[in-house]
Amino acid sequence: AAFILGGVALSAAMEPPQLAAAADAPLCESWAAAATRAAGWGITLLLSALAFRVADGLLISRDDELADNALRSLELAAGMRSGELLRRSFAFPTTAEAIDAATAAAPPRAADLLPFFPLRRPIGAGEERRLNLFEPRWLALMDELGGGSSAGLPGATLGVLHALNKCYYEADGAEARRVDVVVRRVARRVRVHRCEEGTRPVTGQRRLIVHIVGEEELELEPQSLRGDPSGFLVGRAAPLRDGLDGPGGTGGDH
């Protein structure tokens, strides 16, 4: 629309009103006025064609994105029906104080429940990955694994899950959010290789850089996978048996 209006304005500016209106104008001036009008309308048509082309390209891009999203949704639904993928939704606290309160109010976690970290791309056996952690729930998890602080974290183990889809929502309460996540049933155990304490550049809040190394693949027990009051998934898992296969985790910022 902006291209079209611009072309119309340009053609109007190029047309001398006096030449168009004068009945007794010389013949050469009439031809000049006609040529000016023709040039103006030609520019308008050219700009209109360009605008339509741009709009058509935007619509095609939008349709491609919608088609990709629809295909992805179908693949996720098929995976959940087959049991290859698991979907969980749970609320979690967003501050250290709320995490401490939720943990204190909950019954003790069973010893055979493994905590899991959701990641975006698979990690292989023997592969090292760096995690940049600053969310209170992940810092609390690492402190728990380290026996109260990050100093005891090297050598600790946890599980990682390949998260194919993850959405966050507002939850009841000012210090809580809700997450809806779809993960693969095949997970992987990882071991903490080393960690580095630090602070975030802008806020100055605590940050923990954790280096993990992939170990064996695990098969989740679907019925046991649930959200822990502290804000992460926990579940029972055993070494992967024959007949199942799939990627188990990734690295990133959390």
Q: Which stretches are poorly predicted, pLDDT < 50 over at least 5 residues?
A: 1-23, 247-251
Tell me the radius of gyration: 31 Å
- The dominant shape is elongated
Number of helices: 5
Which percent range describes the beta-strand content? 25-35%
Query: How far is the N terminus from the C terminus?
Result: 43 Å
Describe the sheet with the most strands.
10 strands, mixed
Kindly name the structural category. alpha+beta
Give me the strand/helix succession.
HHHEHEEHEEEEEEE
How helix-rich are the residues, as a percent range?
A: 25-40%
User: What is the averaged pLDDT score?
Assistant: 82
What is the count of β-strands?
A: 10
Offer a few descriptive terms:
single chain; 254 residues; alpha+beta; ten-stranded mixed beta sheet; 10 strands; 37% helix; elongated; disordered N terminus
Descriptive overview:
- A hairpin with a 6-residue loop joins strand 6 and strand 7 (206-220).
- The radius of gyration is 31 Å and the shape is elongated.
- Strands 1, 2, 3, 4, 5, 6, 7, 8, 9 and 10 form a ten-stranded mixed β-sheet that branches.
- The longest helix has 56 residues, at 27-82.
- It is 37% helix and 32% strand.
- The model is unreliable at 1-23 and 247-251 (pLDDT under 50).
- It is of the alpha+beta class.
- The protein has helices at 2-14, 17-21, 27-82, 96-105, 136-145; strands at 85-93, 114-119, 128-133, 157-170, 176-184, 186-199, 206-220, 226-227, 233-235, 237-239.
- It is built from five helices and ten strands, in the order H-H-H-E-H-E-E-H-E-E-E-E-E-E-E.
